[in-house]
Amino acid sequence: xxxxxxxxxxxxxxxxxxxxxxxxxxxxxxxxxxxxxxxxxxxxxxxxxxxxxxxxxxxxxxxxxxxxxxxxxxxxxxxxxxxxxxxxxxxxxxxxxxxxxxxxxxxxxxxxxxxxxxxxxxxxxxxxxxxxxxxxxxxxxxxxxxxxxxxxxxxxxxxxxxxxxxxxxxxxxxxxxxxxxxxxxxxxxxxxxxxxxxxxxxxxxxxxxxxxxxxxxxxxxxxxxxxxxxxxxxxxxxxxxxxxxxxxxxxxxxxxxxxxxxxxxxxxxxxxxxxxxxxxxxxxxxxxxxxxxxxxxxxxxxxxxxxxxxxxxxxxxxxxxxxxxxxxxxxxxxxxxxxxxxxxxxxxxxxxxxxxxxxxxxxxxxxxxxxxxxxxxxxxx
Length: 381
Prior knowledge:
This protein is α/β, with parallel strands linked by helices. The protein folds into 2 domains: 2-157, VC0802-like (2-Layer Sandwich), CATH 3.30.2130; 179-221 and 257-374, Vaccinia Virus protein VP39 (Rossmann fold, 3-Layer(aba) Sandwich), CATH 3.40.50.150. Helix content is 31%, strand content 23%. It is built from 11 helices and 14 strands. It has helices spanning 17-25, 45-54, 73-82, 109-128, 179-189, 206-216, 239-248, 265-277, 282-285, 318-332, 345-349, and strands at 6-11, 30-35, 38-43, 60-69, 95-102, 141-148, 151-157, 197-199, 258-262, 286-288, 302-305, 337-342, 357-363, 366-374. Strands 2-3-1-4-7-6-5 form a 7-stranded mixed beta sheet, with helices on one face. The model has no long low-confidence stretch (mean pLDDT 92).
């Protein structure tokens, strides 16, 4: 497959670029170059498939194939029309275009997407007398169009639906955590599955499920029947199925010491349902309880907390609430490592514990800090 080594870009969330680079290097990716929320790399077909089968940190992978400068709309259309689109797909296949535009020259992403669609279809009509059809729901081929000022970058989207969509979450929950964020935080903590892990304010269960998937070596992407890369002309048929089945054989079903604690009845029910949809047992891993009443039996482990932010979820007294977190950790989790995702810098000061790390991340649009508190005697300020 060495002849099929190509340049790709894997996208991720802010703060996880280095972790993603390490992850895909272990899968065989070469010439890693970290960017803002992305990693450039080279890979063959097996590595590309393995990334889709096992990556916990990639959102999607694209393959850039053409760039040019367009001075105006007509210039854009003319240059797009002469490009040999027939090298990427056939007139019998469907396609769609995902556009991101940051330009004073091209101001409407939907309109410029239509111009690209026209250029592609006109090219095929000139060559074959027919044109391919658009399918926005389930296309064979997905093109990525990125315009910054007058610089146009075209790419093939290998992934289609974002890899963060694990397929288990009920989005009706008020403030669900992104699955890539959960997986990245787990990697930042350097948690290993032989160490107890408690998600003390588990919400809808995203972090809990990511921890369980990691511990048992499961991946939600295995349920997907197809990806756009399977429709590329030189895709080795059956490679996805063979690699997926290989990784399925690595799954083990022991019960690690992982627990999610949630006090709110409705939220607990959402987490319960999500675990069921994820193929996991709520009876082993989920407890309806108040974190402030919970006392671990183990002497050491990792406790993670994603407390409510007053920007998104209301609390009568945020500072008092965060102060109570610090007190409970100090009194009942000595010997543990606490990691707290905090989106309120004022509230963070109320925790009253000495942090050794403050890592900048984004929880949705909220700039946050992932704070590490080793809990040993004397850790109180």
